[in-house]
Amino acid sequence: MNSLIPKSEWEDITHILVTHGDPDHYVDxxxxxxxxxxxxxxxxxxxxxxxxxxxxxxxxxxxxxxWIPLENVHPIDVGDRITLQDVTIEGVKTQHxxxxxxxxxxxxxxxxxxxxxxxxxxxxxxxxxxxxxxxNLGDSLLKEEWKGIKPxxxxxxxxxxxxxxxxxxIPDAVEAVKLIAPKMVIPCHYNVPFLLKKNAAPADDLFFxxxxxxxxxxxxxxxxWLPDLKPWAKMISERLKKGGTFYIADFHPxxxxxxxxxxxxxxxxxxxxxEAIYEEYEGTYANQSSKMVSKEYGxxxxxxxxxxxxxxxxxxxxYLKEHDxxxxxxxxxxxxxxxxxxxxxxxxxxxxxxxxxxxx
Length: 360
Prior knowledge:
Layout: E1 16-18, H1 23-26, H2 29-36, E2 40-43, E3 47-50, E4 53-57, E5 67-69, E6 73-76, E7 81-84, E8 87-92, E9 99-103, E10 106-110, E11 124-129, E12 132-136, E13 153-157, H3 170-180, E14 184-188, E15 213-218, H4 229-239, E16 240-251, E17 258-259, E18 266-267, E19 277-282, E20 293-298, H5 303-312, E21 315-323, E22 335-336, E23 342-343, E24 352-359
Parallel strand pairs: 1-2, 2-6, 12-13, 13-14, 15-16
Antiparallel strand pairs: 3-4, 4-5, 7-8, 8-11, 9-10, 11-12, 16-24, 17-18, 19-20, 21-24, 22-23
Helix pairs in contact: 4-5
């Protein structure tokens, strides 16, 4: 079993949260921790004291006989709260379901318990980052204790097999969403392989994307975080009613051709650049006075790429407009205008673009 995170990116990881001890959630946790020096937060059931040392269950051994030391581990219980590097993490009650999967005429049966590795140390995490809340429920069954948490983002498993097997299934996940009342839902743990079975947790995530809207609006600072605009445009089209309106206002791609970290803007990046733009600086996107070192990857998309992605997804472009003025004073040496916007001194290039499109 391999990590979904490339090894080349391990050293950039800032926090490691382990929802339980199953290999698909835990197998490389110690290796990543050693490479990145990131703190590890886990449920207390994943650790124990041996000869006065805090140990964690071996990520790559079956059962509970092998335990290893690991630096910077922070075991927590339900309701416990810890702050690490400006990120606050609170333990949330979860419960891993039993596994009962038919394979080649046999059934794999595992029931979580005090002497069982499956679901060991199960715990969810309510994560607060710069005022935004993410709730990760790991591989849990439905719990009434989640009522009214109201996170910005909910990561929820949907690939259960019914009858409280493995995780929540679609009906239970829908009930959980109603209980929790998040702003956004990310379905997880479905259509996954298990031993020889290629798809042991089938589920249709389109159920969570079936709502259609009259208007979809994308605001400033969004597409620059995306390496590929085709899935973005496809999602917009899927969520719009026929005849519905899409509108985007964002910074012009010419703006992102410059490097601003040294104070004086230097043209450094391509207008249509496939490679990621990497920047490292002290502070964060939301808190410039933070002592955290931010490591950011972004992508610059020319207007031709933006328009093509939208039209290929089934939208008709109603207009494209470009503006010299920006509503935000986020670039060096901008001058405030009478309209309380901001412009460059010479106005040699636009700062903002807007597009209005209609789903056909």
